[in-house]
Amino acid sequence: MGALKAFGDAVNFTLRNPRLALIPLLIALILAPMSAYIQRDIEPFSPMERGKEIEGIIIEEHGATGEMGLENLWPLLFLLLLSLLLNSAAQYSVIYGALRAGEGKDVPLSELFVKGLEHIVQVFGINVLTTIIVAAAAIAAGLPFLMLVIGGAFVNSNSLMLAGVILLLIVEVIILPFLVGASSMTVPAYVVKGSFGSFIDGFAVAWKNKLSSMGFGALLLIFIMAIVIAPAAIVAIILLASQGLTARIVAALIQAPFQAVAQTFASVAGLFLYLELKEELERADNL
Fold first, then answer.
1. Which domain of life does this protein belong to (predicted)?
2. How remote is the C-alpha of 149 from its chain's centroid?
3. DSSP string of the chain?
4. pLDDT tens digits for 217-232?
């Protein structure tokens, strides 16, 4: 029930407070043309002529190849780092604004933006540590079954490999929603409590409310995927028509509002889940 209530409250709150999406939208609009410009020379689909040989590979039918040189790698890494930093600031701004709005305080956008910049390093660090913890947990959960697949390949047993793959998929499908729910609460825990180490409380709360965290994570995954996929058809048509810089910029700008909505909702939803589950734990302790 906690997951459904938190998710529903987050939807209602986000719809009533669309201004919170303005900072993520501004950042997305800034990053969009930069991303398009940096990737302007990267050709994901380069048509090849039949019979042409590339490093020993002969293209028998019309196909496509793509390559990215080192000259494109460093700008992409710079863009990735800049994006992570700016989105960390936006994440804090949204969560802080939602928290204050829940207390009846309407914080100006300029103050929210400054607050985000003040905590940009801390939130970036929390997101990095959260990613490491989530990746380690996912690998640890699937490792026994991955070893089963490797063992099946070693003894040339197709049935053992198939069993390992099926079990691996089942485990990851079960644990992924839980990890999404848990990771969504780490930054909200920091915003609420104010100390860097408090982000661990997000994982602790999730562990004590496994089913609620898992259900919430599943709902959040579906919602975010739906938002991100929404502009895919239009973007695909634009990029199929042209791979030029203008087309790339237009495609990136079209995706920007959807990315901003996804980030805003994920941030608000994580806060609401954290507050709801903390309240449930306090009620349980008082019984």
1. Archaea
2. 29
3. -HHHHHHHHHHHHHHH-GGGGHHHHHHHHHHHHHHHHHTTT-EEEEEE-TT-EETTEE--SSEEEEE--HHHHHHHHHHHHHHHHHHHHHHHHHHHHHHHHHTT----HHHHHHHHHHTHHHHHHHHHHHHHHHHHHHHHHHHHHHHHHHHHHHTT-HHHHHHHHHHHHHHHHHHHHHHHHHHTTHHHHHHHH--GGGGHHHHHHHHHTHHHHHHHHHHHHHHHHHHHHTTHHHHHHHHHH--SHHHHHHHHHHHHHHHHHHHHHHHHHHHHHHHHHHHHHHHHHH-
4. 999 999 999 998 888 8
